[in-house]
TrEMBL record:
Gene: pgaA
Pfam families xrefs: PgaA_barrel
InterPro entries: PGA_export_porin_PgaA, PgaA_barrel, TPR-like_helical_dom_sf
GO molecular function: poly-beta-1,6-N-acetyl-D-glucosamine transmembrane transporter activity
Domain PgaA membrane beta barrel: 527-820
Protein name from the UniProt record: Poly-beta-1,6 N-acetyl-D-glucosamine export porin PgaA
Superkingdom, natural source: Bacteria
Length: 820
């Protein structure tokens, strides 16, 4: 029963006092004659010391036959001591032998009711009422027992009829009890309020109202009314816990910003700390201490003290007691925030699906979302898809509302459609996600969340400017929406709108500093502001190539400073190359320094470098830049003095080159892109080289952990000179279509470990040398960690003709990018 059972105890106390008065006034003369101190024992029992009288009656029973009044006294006293077992044993021994007075029968009826023996209790109550129809205690107990035994209609009829015949606070309190037993808590509170209004000083009336308020979760006023209760009273402890739990629930109510929720959660935590400190040494309050610890978990989760919430839950589990499902949901949230999705998923499944694929109770929208994202974060895509399909299948677009002739939009339908978009993004099916989210955004133009979701899909596809336009449209509805600002900040970072990104991120942090999504955005912004180390190179393993030589090794490195005034970064770098040729070993060393500039739609890098390749120190320079016209088109190029693309063998023979290049890139999305490039070089020996190429990517297959791309490529070159000491075909052309596959070996939030397999078969044509086959195979692995480390290695085998002779090359390429 809920706390309103307190009213039953109050009535029992009232009836007990009435019966005590009866004992004192009507105790038979025979008892006094047999035991001159019997009256003193009665008075002691009334004062609370019941053992002497009970011991006396037990001893007297063995010496002589007890009178009916003595048996009634025994039943009453054991009833006061809440010793139901003894009360019923005495009743069983005597009720068939002597006629026990009504006061004794009332004690027995209460004991049977306390033992939930409803039918037996009703028989005794009705027997008392047949003897004393006007006995208010008996009628009250009878009606309460009717309510307890779920004889709802009879209990309510008897209670209301009695209240109409004899109006008063006690009758209204009884009606409140009956309503509560039927789960009609608002009706119970109305009756209890009426009882308290009629007699505010009546202890039972106030107690009944407290119980009714508490049952309806109006915990604050209930606690205010309990000022007359001592701090050690179990009722007072329960009301304190109800009020604290109400504060926790209030902390989960959506507010304008996170700070307001934190204030409420901090208030709850402070109150729990006081209660736990006051009750921890009270043996009678240990159940209340445990409940306080359980409810406190909710406030810890709101306050983002997730590690403490998890530790408290594990401590409660270790104690051996059960933790209720509502607290386990909080713990699951904490585990998700702590990036432990496997534990969160297992816990939520144990709550919602303890017996198999059918949920024990219908899941709310919040429950559905928590479980869905636990599936996604744990990479359990099959379970996530089953859940989404189930929601969509069971949720029509419109639903009928009782009493309304007009069908209403179904929020659960919209939830299923939104989760489907999230599933498609998580499983890398971005084309389907874009179509689906665009349809939702266009048909629900007044729904800001749908436009934000559509924009996030566009950004994931590399279409940042289109995403920016959608977010501008969404901004009209509610400009200060936190999720809107977060997404705008991500798009601003992609578009190199650094000041805008800072302003948006700073505002989001000020309004929700500890929110998980905010922390993720702040982390991305912080990574952008870090220094950066770039390393790349290759190591020849077995090579006959006239371009790279044998035992070749290359290393390119650069260190970039943190951003200066948002747009600038300084850098310095060192490049090294070596290889063995027929004429000897070649070595090149470059030391460079420069500046990088970035702004919306633009990137540029300026560099001054010192070159040493065996012919003294020479000064070079480079200017590189690109410009984005929109999401799809980019043009870029560079100009160099002492070009870094000069073959090492040419440098080994004292030949350098100046040059430049340009390219045009067309990017549709992550599934398709092409680039046309052109480069020209002038060598110091008079040779002029022209190079051109067309490369691209076409996505063939996408799965949650696997992608397969077709990578066509056409490359050619012309040279004005032939008799030079480096590989320099008069004219050549290669056509190399290939495949590139990537498989995710492990993924946990921002940590991703993948493997790559590449293969290509093509043809190479060289003027005066005919044509030959090109074959390439490669295998590599890459790891990305915490947004600050991105590195990989690739083992490559290729075989192609040079000057008509097929040569083999096995090499290991590597690259590493570290933010610090």
């Amino acid at each position: 029963m809920f706390s309103i059972r307190r009213h039953a105890n109050s009535i029992k106390n009232l009836k007990s006092g009435t019966c005590l008065f009866t004992v004192c006034v009507l105790a038979p003369v025979q008892a006094y004659a047999v035991a001159p101190d019997y009256d003193d024992l009665i008075m002691e029992a009334r004062a609370g010391n019941r053992a002497p009288l009970l011991d006396y009656l037990q001893a007297q029973e063995k010496q002589t036959t007890l009178t009916a009044n003595q048996v009634a006294d025994w039943l009453q006293i054991s009833g006061w001591a809440d010793n139901n077992e003894e009360t019923l044993k005495v009743w069983d021994r005597y009720h068939t032998q002597i006629a026990i007075p009504a006061r004794g029968q009332i004690a027995v009826a209460r004991a049977l009711r306390n033992e939930k023996k409803w039918n037996q209790s009703l028989v005794v109550w009705e027997n008392v009422l047949s003897e004393e129809p006007d006995n208010a205690d008996a009628r009250t107990g009878w009606i309460m027992t009717l309510a307890d035994s779920r004889r709802n209609e009879q209990a309510l009829t008897e209670a209301t009829n009695w209240a109409q015949r004899e109006p008063g606070p006690d009758r209204d309190a009884l009606v409140a009890y009956v309503y509560h037993a039927q789960g009609k808590n608002w009706d119970a509170m109305l009756a209890a309020s009426r009882a308290e209004t009629e007699d505010p000083k009546n202890k039972d009336s106030r107690s009944t109202l407290i119980d009714a308020l508490s049952a309806n979760r109006v915990s604050g006023p209930a606690l205010d009314l309990s000022e007359n209760l001592s701090d050690t009273d179990p009722m007072k402890r329960r009301l304190e816990l109800d009020a604290a739990a109400q504060t926790v629930r209030a902390a989960y109510t959506p507010t304008r910003n996170e700070e307001e929720r934190f204030i409420v959660a901090d208030k709850a935590l402070a109150r729990y700390d006081q209660l736990l400190a006051a009750w921890k040494n009270n043996p009678d309050a240990q159940a209340d201490v445990r409940r306080a610890r359980i409810d406190r978990i909710g406030a810890l989760v709101i306050r983002k003290r997730d590690a403490e919430a998890i530790a408290e839950y594990e401590s409660l589990e270790a104690d051996g007691g059960a933790v209720p499902s509502y607290a386990k949901r909080w713990v699951a949230t904490a585990w998700l925030n702590e990036e432990q999705p496997a534990k969160a998923e297992a816990m939520l499944m144990s709550i919602y699906y303890p017996n198999g694929p059918i949920a024990t109770t219908p899941l709310s929208s919040d429950d559905q979302q928590d479980l869905f994202f636990a599936h996604l974060d744990n990479e359990n895509f099959d379970a996530a898809k089953r859940q989404v399909d189930g929601i969509i299948k069971d949720s029509p677009y419109l639903r009928r509302v009782y009493g309304s002739p007009t069908p209403q939009p179904n929020d659960t339908w919209l939830l299923g459609q939104t989760l489907l978009t999230q599933y498609q993004v998580a499983t890398n099916d971005l084309s389907a996600a874009e179509k689906h989210s665009e349809r939702l955004a266009r048909t629900g133009s007044g729904n800001q969340g749908l436009r934000i979701t559509y924009a996030s899909v566009l950004e994931a596809r590399g279409l940042a400017r289109k995403a920016e336009q959608e977010l501008k449209l969404a901004e009209v509805i509610e400009p200060s929406n936190l999720e809107l600002e977060r997404q705008q900040a991500y798009v601003a970072l992609d578009l190199q709108e650094w000041k805008q990104a800072d302003e948006l991120t700073d505002d989001v942090i000020a309004r929700s500093p500890d929110d998980t999504d905010t922390l993720r955005l702040a982390r991305i912004r912080d990574v952008h502001k870090m220094s950066e180390l770039r390393l790349s190179g290759s190591q020849g393993i077995a090579s006959d190539s006239p371009i790279s030589g044998k035992h070749d090794f290359t290393l390119d490195s650069a260190i970039y400073s943190p951003p200066i005034n948002d747009n600038w970064r300084l850098f310095t770098g060192f490049n090294f190359a070596t290889g063995e040729f027929e004429e000897g070993k070649g070595i090149s060393r470059d030391l460079a320094a420069g500046a990088e500039w970035t702004s919306r739609n633009y990137w540029a890098e300026m560099e001054i470098s010192g070159h040493n390749y065996g012919d003294g120190q020479k000064i070079g320079g480079r200017l590189s830049a690109w410009h984005d016209f929109n999401d799809n088109w980019r043009i870029g190029g560079s100009a160099e003095r002492l070009s870094r693309s000069t073959p090492l063998r040419a440098l080994r023979n004292g030949v350098s080159a100046n040059g430049g290049d340009g390219y045009i890139r067309w990017y549709q999305n992550e599934r398709r892109e092409y680039q046309l490039s052109f480069a020209a070089s002038h060598f110091s020996d008079g040779n002029d080289r022209i190079e051109y190429g067309l490369s691209g990517k076409e996505r063939l297959l996408t799965a949650p952990r696997f992608t397969l791309d077709f990578t066509p490529g056409i490359f050619g070159s012309t040279n004005s000179e032939e008799n030079v000491p480096y590989y320099n075909p008069k004219r050549d052309l290669s056509v190399v279509p290939g495949l590139s596959a990537e498989h995710v070996l492990y993924r946990h939030y921002d940590t991703v470990w993948t493997q790559q397999i590449t293969g290509a078969v093509g043809s190479y044509w060289q003027k005066n040398q005919g044509s030959g086959a090109i074959t390439q195979l490669g295998y590599g692995q890459r790891i990305q960690w915490n947004n600050v480390v991105d590195g990989g290695v690739m083992l490559t085998w290729d075989k192609r003709p040079y000057d008509g002779k097929r040569e083999r090359n096995i090499s290991l390429a590597f690259d590493l990018n570290v933010r610090f």
